[in-house]
């Protein structure tokens, strides 16, 4: 970065309605905003962690500039006002459009809808199953549940990690692991997310060598499918 924030740099955010302080970012947090791009969007991402409110629900205002869109650059010190929006009630037609955006990896359309609707749990399963990492990241940012279970009878109890692993989507698995999903979650049939070449990544993330499917251990499953390098790695763990 060419510009280094001074020790006095600060961003303060107050609730627009009450005037009560919502957050005050110290130097380290201001630097985090700068690393993320030094925009309103970057600030919202930091505020999401501090306040537990997805950035899609945050509207930021400045007394001199009015409402600030996500691309506006920041120049600390800043004094801003915050309005937290409620999610719009869910409607069947809107739900179908939302799910379609996840299935077809239309990230820009999904982001626009996330500003209105938080119904991200089933959508995260679909995006993980399809391996659409960009959409997954948006859903996770909207606080979609990484541990949520899928109701489909054939995969009852399956988490998004099960679906990403089962379909061999390595980057999707990495994304979910970064979101601190449970690596050893089981379906109602006792299956864990340990599948094929994904095993290596899951074991590195701390997953246990539990029965994977059809009564087979992950080692036996790797041998059955001819993944000999994974089988050797699993054998070395015993």
UniProtKB/TrEMBL annotation:
- Which SUPFAM superfamilies does this chain map to? Ankyrin repeat
**One Pfam match:** Ank_2
For whether the record's keyword set contains Transit peptide, the answer is: no
Q: What are the start and end residues of each ANK repeat?
A: 119-151, 156-188
Whether Protein biosynthesis counts among this entry's keywords is no
Q: What are the entry keywords?
A: ANK repeat, Repeat
Q: Which InterPro entries match?
A: Ankyrin_rpt, Ankyrin_rpt-contain_sf, NF-kappa-B_inhibitor
Q: Which SMART domains match?
A: ANK
Q: What is this protein called?
A: Ankyrin-3 (ANK-3) (Ankyrin-G)
Q: Which organism is it from?
A: Durusdinium trenchii
